Amino acid sequence: MTLPTQLVLRALLEDPTREMYGLEICRAAGLAPGTIHPILVRFEGIGWLESHPEDVDPHEAGRPRRRYYRLTTHGAELARDALAQAHSRMTGLLGLRAKPAGGPS
Amino acid sequence: MTGRPPGAPEPARPGAHDLDHVRDLARVLVRDLDRVRDLDSRLAWNLDYIRSVGDRARSRTGDYQLACDIDDAINLARDLAGDLADDDHLDHTYNLARDLARDLDFICASVHSYYWLKDNFRAALSAAFTVSNTIAEDLRHRWTLRETAVEQPHRRPRMTVSRVGERLLSMELRLLPAGHRSRFSDEFRAELQALAEANASESLQVMYSFQQIRRVWQLRAALRAPHRPRLHRLHRLACWMLASDRRTWGTLGPLMAFAAVNVQVKQGWGSAFFTIPSVVAFYAGVEWLREHWNVEVERRGRSPKNSA
Q1: CA-only gyration radius of chain A, Å
Q2: A59 at the B interface (CB within 8 A)?
Q3: What is the ipTM of this complex?
Q4: Fewer Cβ atoms within 10 Å of its own Cβ: the N or the C terminal residue of chain A?
Q5: What confidence tens digit (pLDDT) does each residue in B53-110 have?
Q6: Is A53 in Cβ contact with B212 (below 8 Å)?
Q7: Is the CB of A33 less than 8 angstroms away from the CB of B211?
Q8: Count of CB atoms within 10 A of residue B304's CB?
Q9: Strands ordered across the beta sheet of A49-53
Q10: Burial class of residue A72, CB neighbours in 10 A (0-12, 13-18, 19+)
């Protein structure tokens, strides 16, 4: 899992019930706008995310509808597992895995 | 003086309720101020007196002054309650509430010099001040919110969406699969507009569009095959290369030989000797990738014996 993907998942997992549109996710993840849409589309395609257009009349609002994204319940569980796995892999690579206290050195 | 008096309704959050809650508070305030009169007989007498003589009582001092101040506060509270009947003049109502809170604060500060007043009288005045302050605060929030909402349409013309940014987005949309264009047209334009509403400069908006267009191939690939990993094609190509020794070393061999010869020509044999570890590292890397990606190697022209 790439670092941008992990950042997007972390941003969405901060509050899995919250719906965010693209720019909000960019801000939360600290990524450039173009980076997140391919990631969001992939996650939506595999069922981790769900999205819907904003419930406003574009003429009244004076702007096009935003698209809001949210993790599905199943997606949130899988995202947590995937992040934990990525984290353990990273710590394993860097040799930062904590040794059990009192265990053999 | 802060805090909510016992029995008074909880202060409303602006926007959470309508003005009914403030009206209830105002009624509580009028009732409490009317009851203040019954808590002290001397004040009650003075109040009756100044109401009977009218403006002539205004010139008097001492007890009468306190009675006048309280009478003014009661009248102001009644005006406030009346003004709250409609919410069209929120600014005026807020000013009334603020004046009342200020007057009651002044009265609360001045009653300390009237030694004959009982504690429950002072507490009732203090509670009335708190209620009036709550009303003033509530109205101030509502008024601010309303002003902000009124100002919003005036701000819109100042917001400009970058035309260059829009054109770049249009170009990007043409590169996306036809079935997804309308969705991303709305999504990208809404985000561009959100940037404009946040007073982002034109160059920042162009940068947004440029960043979107930079990743259009990734987005296209994701839309076409969301289940496939991001570098699926590159991975497939690499696996195909690694599946054959001829393809792998036929590509890497000349490159490594060229690098070794180049080093020898430019730096001599001593340096060329140090390219050997690189060759070994390449070989180990290729074997690691084959194992990691489960690539089965086609070993043409080799019998199992030879390969063992």
Answers
A1: 17
A2: no
A3: 0.84
A4: C
A5: 776 666 566 677 778 888 888 888 888 888 777 666 677 777 778 888 888 888 887 7
A6: no
A7: yes
A8: 7
A9: A20-21, A67-71, A49-53
A10: middle
